[in-house]
Amino acid sequence: MSSFGVSDGQLAETVSDSDRAGTVSDGTLTEAVPDGSRAASNGGSTDECGREQEHVSMLYGRLDDLREQASRRRDASLRATGGTPQARAERETAITLYTDQLAQLSAVENGLCFGRLDFSGGERHYIGRIGIFDDSGDYEPLLLDWRAPAARPFYLATAASPEGVTRRRHIRTRYRKVVGLDDEVLDLTATRRSAHEDVTGEAALLAALDAGRTGRMRDIVETIQAEQDRVIRDDLGGALVVQGGPGTGKTAVALHRVAYLLYTYRQQLSTRVVLVVGPNETFLRYISQVLPSLAETGVLLGTVGDLYPGITARRPEPPEAAAIKGRLEMTDVLAAAIRDRQQVPEKYIDLTIDQDMLRLDRAICEDARAAARRTGKLHNLARPIFDTEVIHALSLQLAEKIGTDPYADDPLGDDDAPGDPQILEEADLAEIRRELREEPEVKAALDWMWPILTPQDLLSDLYASADRLATAAPDLSDAERALLLREPGGGWTPADVPLLDEAAELLGAHDKPVDALAEKRRRERIAYAEGALEIMSGSASYEFEDEAESEILAATDLLEAERLAERHGEEARLTPAERAAADRTWAFGHIVVDEAQELSPMAWRLLMRRCPSRSMTVVGDVAQTGDLAGTSSWAQVLEPYVDHRWRLEELTVNYRTPAEIMAVGGGLLAAIDPALRPPRSVRSTGVEPWAARVEPEHLAEGLVDVVLREVAEVDDGRIGVIVAAGQEEELGAAVTKAVPEAAVGEQPDLSSRVVVLTVRQAKGLEFDSVVVVEPARILAESPRGLSDLYVALTRATQRLGVLHTEPLPVGLEGLRPVAVEKSASPAGV
Ligand SMILES: Nc1ncnc2c1ncn2[C@@H]1O[C@H](COP(=O)(O)OP(=O)(O)OP(=O)(O)O)[C@@H](O)[C@H]1O
């Protein structure tokens, strides 16, 4: 493999990048890859870099032109005023379009062009983050978007199957400067073969994998591997499951798939929006830069807890409570809770209407309830039927009283003389019914018997009452019901959100609070707009003496208050993603679920409701399931919704964890499920994981020593300290005392040098060096402890250490023991 240095000689690391290609894990490629089949030097590095620099500079020139063009067009649209409503709407659209374009063109500044393909016919394609065309005549592609079909050989061509490619070149740039080239010559006539035919672009890949972590996930567009490419470019339709062990690139692949789908099905997906669901806020922050760096904005990122508009579900709760809420049986519990709210009096309710006493006895109420239930309508929608039945019964009672009272004071306003028997016609009865509906006592009785409920009402009332819980959830044990019991108020937990969503489905439309708020805002905007119109028309003279004033009148004619209000309303500027976020009933064009093994059955119900097309990408690893409500079987999760119509792709190569560390994780995997195979690590580091035992009273102190030494080991890399949930505060405090910039807490800053966090928080993340504290405790604190420990041990890209006071759990006893002494490096390297 050839690797070309920078022309000005400042960045000598390009040579060491090439050397790293020799560190592939299984030991068969330990030389610096002078491998004829995959690479060949084409010499003259300075010349070659120079030539590429010319092309790259030309591309950046075009990028600047495109930005300039978009900026000019946006400014012109911003300056445009007036016109028909349609013209104004078009103007808004144009502003959004050019603003998005500008953001996208800025996002691709780094690594705009990263590859080149040479074909046997002499053709040559440059590959980059976006497509750029020559606008001077025939629109020749100057740069191919990595997602274009023609760019695919960059990821798939091998010496065995070159697809017409004779050379694949990785172009490394820093800012706008070419700093190195890595070539692979894909030539079947070559005599030597690499043992790594399944790895494309080794030097570039290994350089990317060895690079220090920053606390933000990077895109992998330059080094996507063949098995990943197949997943990324899989069809849009149906449910695709991507199963893979730790570090196989599931998250990276899922995000690149989003970018690919948006490129290929732009029309369809940009209006319907793609949703990416992740396990927690910290994770979402970790991945948040990937899509923008691929020039894709407009994708909605959220946790399941974010998917009920108007609610921020951040309240903590015991995992056992969340697990109960995640069970599918909760649908029956909610249905029963609603039926329980459709109540009838034990005997009767007496109502005083004027001077008359009316009696609603139990039988009347039961009949009304049965009639309302028979309609099969949702609870809130069936209320009018219930009302009608009850009012009808009351009106008959009242009519009877009126009819039998010869001295009635002409209550219906007819002209019969006093003392005449009252003859009630249908119109009179209708009037009685209308009046009854307005009676506060009647209203109160109806509200008590069949209350209009918001999902929030239903759930908080249910949680607040042991009796209600007992009626609605007879199959839960006393202890389980006790876990659900809580005072009203205090916010919602993430596990409440699928229940609120389910309740909304069962109750039917009401959305009173949300509507009321929206209505209030609309009125405020109209008031503002009316004020604005008044100023405009007030300033105009009524004689229309000059043209300017008559134009003002024309403007006021056109802009009636409501429309002006609309234009001032935020809604006018909402992007499809923002609209989707605010709409509980939105049907997304595609949903990606990451760490999908953690989702409860109730969470799946919610997601399936948001994705009627079932166009989904589900990525996860059933061996890493930590949530008590999570799954260990994709079939179990998906088949209730898609039957057998889902497809499985597996990722088998671990790009994160070096072989030395994965050997430790592999031991645990067998204990989780002997059928599971650990992914094969693509590289090794030569650094053996270590274990250090300290006395319990010296744990915090020992941890500080270890952390300080790891800080020294990884230069400006990141260190993750993974602890059992109960030890986070104490150990976090000790570490922050010694390393003030260390991060700890519910949403730690991942860009900090040292982050102390629990396994739950560490899910999906990675660090250059990881210290796992008290593995026995992590193991013991949950029925899913083995999986949690597996997750903790597989977060490191370079170094792993274990600090413990209790004996090491089975599988870890073989770790290299080291002493924690202030003078010695725990890693012994
Ligand atoms: N083709 C690739 N080129 C460069 N880096 C890659 C590639 N594939 C994966 N990586 C890197 O490997 C690391 C692990 O990737 P990712 O987090 O997507 O794995 P994962 O399968 O989701 O892991 P886990 O299940 O443990 O959360 C990331 O740093 C990612 O950038």
Automatic annotation (TrEMBL):
Region (Disordered): 1-53
Keywords: ATP-binding, Helicase, Hydrolase, Nucleotide-binding
GO molecular function annotations of the record: 3'-5' DNA helicase activity; ATP binding; DNA binding; hydrolase activity
Annotated ranges, domain UvrD-like helicase ATP-binding: 223-658
Pfam families xrefs: UvrD_C_2
Family matches, as InterPro entries: DNA_helicase_UvrD/REP, P-loop_NTPase, UvrD-like_ATP-bd, UvrD-like_helicase_C
One Gene Ontology CC term in the entry: cytosol
Residues reported in the UniProt entry to bind ATP: G244, G245, P246, G247, T248, G249, K250, T251
Gene Ontology BP annotations: recombinational repair
Protein name per UniProt: DNA helicase
Species this protein is from: Planosporangium mesophilum
